[in-house]
Write a structure and sequence with these properties.
Layout lengths: L16 E14 L2 E13 L4 E9 L2 H14 L1 E3 L11 E5 L2 E7 L6 E2 L2 H10 L4 E7 L3 H14 L3 H8 L3 H6 L1
Parallel strand pairs: 7-8
Antiparallel strand pairs: 1-2, 2-3, 3-4, 5-6, 6-8
Helix pairs in contact: 2-3
Length: 172
């Protein structure tokens, strides 16, 4: 079980957009033959700093997606976004999936691969450079990206921890 994050958010039903990251058909072999079911990974976010991921499994596609959306709404975190990008560089890790996200200048866009792109766009990050290293498994990449976003600290939080003003933080 993943460790509980300090910046968990209560699921508010305010305009959460869902993105299907991966849909996988899985088979269970029984005496009567193969029984097929579907596993869906979904990312939900409000595009304003709240994002979550979920996994749903069911016999049909639509039911597995709706289960994944319900699970994602239970796993929401708040991400600090500063001027449309992330406040600082951060690495994330889950299993063999490793990711690196870096802030980017305005107008850069989201430079990221499939599963990471879905998470970052759902979170509302508009300019970011991202690299997925290690496992290309969508499960691990999504969870590693969420891990990296959960580790981010806002500029106000950093200034408060260092006991300095925001002006001194940005201007040295």
């Amino acid at each position: 079980m993943a460790k509980k994050s300090a910046n968990r958010v209560k699921p508010a039903e305010t305009e959460l957009k869902e993105k299907l990251v991966n849909l996988n058909r899985v088979a269970k072999v029984t005496k009567g033959g193969r029984t097929f079911s579907f596993a869906a990974i979904v990312v939900v976010g409000d595009g304003n700093g709240t994002v979550g991921h979920g996994l749903g499994k069911a016999r049909d596609v639509s039911e597995s997606i709706s289960k994944a959306v319900d699970d994602a709404k239970k796993n929401l975190i708040k991400v600090p976004i500063h001027n449309g990008t992330i406040p600082h560089e951060q690495k994330g890790k889950y299993g063999a999936g490793r990711v690196l996200i870096k802030p980017a200048a305005d107008g850069t866009g989201v430079i990221a691969g499939g599963a990471m792109r879905a998470v970052l766009e759902s979170a509302g990050v508009h300019n970011v450079l991202a690299k997925s290293m290690g496992s290309p498994n969508p499960h691990n990449v999504v969870k590693a990206t969420i891990d990296a976003l959960a580790k981010l600290r806002s500029p106000m939080e950093v200034a408060r921890q260092r006991n300095i003003s925001m002006d001194k933080l940005f201007n040295g």
